[in-house]
Write a structure and sequence with these properties.
Blueprint (H helix, E strand, L loop, with lengths): L4 E2 L1 H12 L9 H13 L2 H7 L1 E2 H13 L11 H6 L1 H6 L11
Parallel strand pairs: 1-2
């Protein structure tokens, strides 16, 4: 459960939205419009401070692979911990496979 990752993924989506002249109408378009609007206003520095890099997430994944007792769900940063707060409250250790929402 890494939460946000600082990568070119969001920039790629924003670029495509600009080519398509915005979020498509119908479906989930109305739900995503405010989210993409906020992303578009962030500076690269703000994004880098808020989210982990892909390398940081990969390091956590490597540690999990090498561990003898990995949890079912692992949050990789404080931001991910907050983002996944409801699941974390139900199953703080990540070892309860019945803790899914």
């Amino acid at each position: 459960m890494p939460g946000g990752i600082h990568s070119e993924f969001a920039n790629s989506i924003l670029s495509q939205l600009e080519l398509d002249e915005g979020v498509p109408e119908g479906g989930y378009g109305g739900e995503f419009e405010p989210y993409f609007s906020r992303i578009h206003k962030r500076t690269p520095e703000q994004t880098a401070r808020r989210y982990q890099s892909a390398d940081q997430v990969a390091q956590v994944v490597l540690e999990i692979i090498e561990s003898k007792k990995a949890a079912v769900r692992i949050r990789t940063s404080a931001w991910a911990e907050e983002f996944c707060k409801l699941k974390t409250e139900i199953d703080p250790t990540g070892k309860n496979s019945k803790g899914w929402l």
